[in-house]
Amino acid sequence: MKRFKIFFTFLSLLFIYSLIYSCNTNSCRFCNKKQQGAIFQNIRCKADTSILYNIFVPSETDTVLPLLIFLDPHGNTAFALNKYSQLAEKHKIILAGFDAYYNGLPYNIVSKKFKIWFNEVYTNAPVDTTKIFLSGFSGGARAISLLESETKNVLATALCGAGPANLELWNTGKQPAMFFVGSSDFNYNEVISIFNNKNIRRTKSLCVFKDSHEWPNANLFEDFFILINRLSNKNTNIDENIYISRAQELVKSNRFDLAINNISNAIFAIGAEKPSLNKLRDSLNLSITEEFKSKYNSNLIKEYTLQNRIYNYFQDLDTIKYFALLDSVRLSAKVDSFSLESDVMNRIIGYCGILAYTFTKRAYDLQSNNLYNFLKIYEYTEPANIDMMLFHTAYYAKNKNCILAKKFIDMARANGLQNNDKRLNLFPEFNNCKELK
């Protein structure tokens, strides 16, 4: 009798769930197989038309699937969806990009819009709402570290190119987290220090890859998809040889640090015992020489010393010494692009870019007389940077020099600025020049 009651209860729950799901599919646009297997961009949220989003549902989807949500610092997640849609197709995971977030938007607004949007995604796509995953890049990583505590059924997060916004709050989370950071990323030291912090109790892993401040390539980011499958109780066939050969290539370049991170992250993602991977990781740990450790540490000291010197140059507006040092760093970065020294030099270049933005924005906000000087420093530091071009545009538009304002806005567009870019709304000075419309 007891077995019959349990069986009847199970059938009842299954029936109720099927009713709920079938009701949702009545308005579920992406339950239609004709709307699957392609990336749909710039969808406007019905409940709040200021929210745009992108979505990818794997082809031939006829059941609910895990959902992976992306946030980008400039409100442009289409890049990430394009980068990872083949992985989503392979692993049968829905991708959605929340484009209402961008750096500088107050978090209370982000949180409110995210909740409105999330409800619409659920009704618009065959989402298993018990299996939600978040990934963010740079400022987007900081945002998801806050959103995860407010969103039900988030099973894991991937923080790319930055650490959490509130380390103390983030440390209270129970979900596993994966860090991805480039060895030349200006946020590298921040991420490494969080990962190595013995006071951090949270389950975490780290993948360091040979690049700067970028989303990780698809081959590396597949680790997070494998973790998603494991936490979603889906079976995944793992070819261990892929990880082994990848690590061996890094060892050939004398980058034991990257090889160990790669293998360790793969083991974390898979979760099950893989003797060949464990053996390789242990072997790599034993292979690191004292000379390598000494070189690694001395480069970190050199980086810290250079950062202090450069910061003082910005404080003093000493352009002569700063330009000379930056030129020297750029030359050093090109000597051996795969070395520890090159990583440090590239991180210094990134640090210069951060300082150039920070000092320029502060001068802009304060309407400082030094704004023009910082604009010229910013231009020399990052000549192809869109933010730099927008600050120049605002500066010239304020002074009603619309010819130069148009020159810089045209340069920004040539470098990828889109007409719907959120940053265009940050500069009221643009209204002074009709040429900018």
Number of helical stretches of at least 4 residues: 16
Shape: globular
Along the chain, the helix and strand elements come as HEEEHEHEHEHEHEHHHHHHHHHH
Q: Based on DSSP secondary structure assignment, what is the total number of beta strands?
A: 8
From the N-terminal CA to the C-terminal CA, the straight-line distance is 75 Å
Number of domains: 2
Sequence stretches where pLDDT stays below 50 over 5 or more residues = 10-25
Strand order, main sheet: write it out.
1-2-4-3-5-6-7-8
CATH architecture tag of the largest domain = 3-Layer(aba) Sandwich
Report the helical percentage: 40-55%
Report Rg. Answer: 24 Å
Strand content bin: 5-15%
CATH-defined fold name of the largest domain = Rossmann fold
CATH superfamily of the largest domain: Alpha/Beta hydrolase fold, catalytic domain
**Under the CATH scheme, which class of the largest domain?**
Alpha Beta
- Helix/strand/pairing category: alpha/beta
Mean pLDDT: 91
Question: Which sheet architecture does the biggest sheet show?
Answer: 8 strands, mixed
Polypeptide structure, described:
55% of the residues lie in helices and 12% in strands. Helix 2 links the parallel strand 3 (65-71) and strand 4 (94-98). It is globular and about 60 Å long. It has 437 residues and is of the alpha/beta class. The chain has an 8-stranded mixed sheet with strand order 1-2-4-3-5-6-7-8, sandwiched between helices. The longest helix is centred in the C-terminal third of the chain and has 27 residues, at 290-316. Helix 2 crosses helix 7 (218-231) and helix 15 runs antiparallel to helix 16 (402-414). It has 2 domains: 22-236, Alpha/Beta hydrolase fold, catalytic domain (Rossmann fold, 3-Layer(aba) Sandwich), CATH 3.40.50.1820; 291-436, Serine Threonine Protein Phosphatase 5, Tetratricopeptide repeat.
